[in-house]
Amino acid sequence: MGHISENILSLRQELPSGVELVAVSKFKSEEEIMEAYGAGQRVFGESRPQELKEKAESMPKDIEWHFIGHLQSNKIKMTVPYVKLIHSVDSPKLFNEISSWCDRNGYSVDVLLELHIASEESKQGFSEEEVSDFLKGMQEAPAHVRIRGVMGMASLTDDEAVVRREFAHLNSVFDRIAALRLPYLDRFDLKSFGMTNDYRIAVEMGSNMVRIGTRIFGPRGVRI
Length: 224
Description:
Radius of gyration: 17 Å
Strand content: 15-25%
Helix content: 25-40%
CATH superfamily: Alanine racemase
Shape: globular
Mean pLDDT: 94
Largest sheet: 8 strands, parallel
């Protein structure tokens, strides 16, 4: 058994029931992904539309692809046809463009609303006020885009208290959105937070979907 298979099996034993493991496979070869697949992993996360498209077209069709990176509007057509879930809808503009594209082309997709919870200004996402205004201002349920929950990334820090505080904030925003009981949030049930460095804290803080790459595949090498 290879180290990737061993890591997958170890994670599956560690993660509580009900927590979905998304194996972050960006920049990883098909051979590496297939080793994880052979260990039973079926959900993989990609962040580059061209790479996603190539892998989805050539790899087993029972793989469930998630898009986890920043999505540019002009790459929607290279992403939506291949994915089950987009984690990173970070603005009303992007949401509306995905919805319009799906309406025109007959596709449906689930999405998460990305919330800005970290201290770094470089991270994208809605603020709590922005996401509330966006949802309350929606005139009708989108025909082909279903809002399933929220996603967030904590600050890159060794200070566990900071990470816990940011994850707690994300959880509280999720709860406040769910409490709105809006008709188009009938399947609002996913909380995607936690990566290799902080997934244990994330699970403890209520995450039910973790995005893990390095812990499975090892450190990312230099790209050529």
